Amino acid sequence: FLFITTGEENLLAILKRRWWKYMILGIIDIEANYLVVKAYQYTTLTSVQLLDCFVIPVVILLSWFFLLVRYKAVHFIGIVVCILGMGCMAGADVLVGRQQGAGENKLIGDLLVLGGATLYGISNVCEEYIVRNLSRVEFLGMIGLFGSFFSGIQL
């Protein structure tokens, strides 16, 4: 159906103009998922869940600069509390060495989660930009297409 449609909403026209952007976004999204899931091998479930909240400061920072969203002081206080909590969690994992999970090296696991959370934040801001300025149908179709392709390659 999308191949038959004429004009700028045609699948082929979209792929011609923006294929590389969706390719990059697909890779970022896939690798964010991979890093967070891989972190479970190294650190505890609690650490992964708490450190994954690093997405919030990343999204707020990127939204401020690229989407020109403005936040209030209470939002920035929340970010500081979030980052302090994550620092305490990472420090506790390294210093105390909780045996809650089967983690071998908790610092590596924590860094994987933070990397995945950063990529999630980048992905979320890019998605917001696309949905605001283009089409949510286009976004869902293209992220599904490229995400499936790169997931298959990584598998």
UniProtKB/TrEMBL annotation:
One of its GO terms (cellular component) is membrane. It comes from the Eukaryota. Pfam families: SLC35F. The chain crosses the membrane at residues 49-67, 73-95, 107-125. One of its GO terms (molecular function) is transmembrane transporter activity. The keyword Transport applies. Signal peptide: none annotated. InterPro entries: EmrE-like (IPR037185), SLC35_F1/F2/F6 (IPR009262), SLC35F_Transporter (IPR052221). The keyword Methyltransferase does not apply. Keywords: Membrane, Transmembrane, Transmembrane helix, Transport. It is a multi-pass membrane protein. It is found in: Membrane. Belongs to the SLC35F solute transporter family. Putative solute transporter. This is Solute carrier family 35 member F1. It comes from Leptosomus discolor.
